[in-house]
Design brief:
The complex is a heterodimer of chains A (117) and B (113). Chain A has no helices and 11 strands. Chain A is mostly beta strands. In chain A, the strands form 2 sheets. In chain A, strands 2, 4, 5, 6, 9, 10 and 11 form a 7-stranded mixed beta sheet that branches. A 4-stranded antiparallel beta sheet of chain A has the order 1-3-8-7, with no helix packed on it. Chain A starts with a strand and ends with a strand. By secondary structure, chain B is mostly beta strands. In chain B, the strands form 3 sheets. In chain B, strands 2, 5, 6, 10, 11 and 12 form a 6-stranded mixed beta sheet that branches. Chain B has a 4-stranded antiparallel beta sheet with strand order 3-9-8-7, with no helix packed on it. In chain B, strands 1-4 form a two-stranded antiparallel sheet. Chain B is globular, with a radius of gyration of 13 Å. Classes of the chains: A mainly beta (117), B mainly beta (113). At the A-B interface, strand 5, strand 9 and strand 10 of A face strand 5 and strand 6 of B.
């Protein structure tokens, strides 16, 4: 149980375009969704935390106007990279958090590899 | 603040060798501790967790014991397989019921036949 999917798994886009990444919790309701960015051979950097129906909370240094996060339902969150540039190329991973006794556990999607040309 | 420190890799082992990956943490209160595994090109999978002192998390032959006195959560496996080659992340959440995680930098494990 606790499966999270991400779509697309890979995307290549031109500089200046926008890209949307979807994160879905398939068999549970994710009260909180987390978006991470991972650079090669490095740890995960938390970008933002979102709760269903409310605005996302962004970590310091993350541009909220560039990385738009929408958490429209308990099973879907989206990350839109607006006006993407090559420096935005990275591996993006979402994580879903449960409520209740398992609230301290996150379940992660398989990640999306974004390449901006 | 909270932090997690892992041993730097890569850790290179032969198949059937014993594995230890060290993890220590800094946190106030009573954090929950986790090990996640990331296979090449994939997201993270929860490997095991422990929520209170002296708890032992275990899964797929891996285990780790929550040691509050040494603020450690070392990952061990008695006999590694080639398929265990991956990056292992130690993480904590500051208290039970709170899902924001602080990750260590990850340790790459390479197992050769």
């Amino acid at each position: 149980g606790a499966v999270v999917s991400q779509h697309p798994s890979r995307v290549i886009c031109k500089s200046g375009t926008s890209v949307k990444i979807e994160c879905r919790s398939l068999d549970f309701q994710a009260t909180t969704m987390f978006w991470y960015r991972q650079f090669p051979k490095q740890s995960l950097m938390l970008m933002a935390t979102s709760n269903e129906g409310s605005k996302a909370t962004y970590e310091q240094g993350v541009e909220k106007d560039k990385f738009l996060i929408n958490h429209a339902s308990l099973t879907l969150s989206t990350l839109t990279v607006t006006s993407a540039h090559p420096e935005d190329s990275s591996f993006y991973i979402c994580g879903g958090g449960l409520a209740g006794v398992k609230a301290d556990t996150q379940y992660f999607g398989p990640g999306t590899r974004l390449t901006v040309l | 603040g909270n932090s997690v420190t892992q041993m730097e890799g890569p850790v290179t082992l032969s198949e059937e060798a014993f594995l230890t990956i060290n993890c220590t943490y800094t946190a106030t209160g009573y954090p929950s501790l986790f090990w996640y595994v990331q296979y090449p090109g994939e997201g993270l999978q929860l490997l095991l967790k422990a929520t209170k002192a002296d708890d032992k998390g275990s899964n797929k032959g891996f285990e780790a014991t929550y040691r509050k006195e040494t603020t450690s959560f070392h990952l061990e496996k008695g006999s590694v397989q080639v398929s265990d080659s991956a990056v292992y992340f130690c993480a904590l959440s500051p208290f039970s019921g709170y899902s924001t995680l602080t990750f260590g930098k990850g340790t790459m494990l390479l197992v050769s036949p």
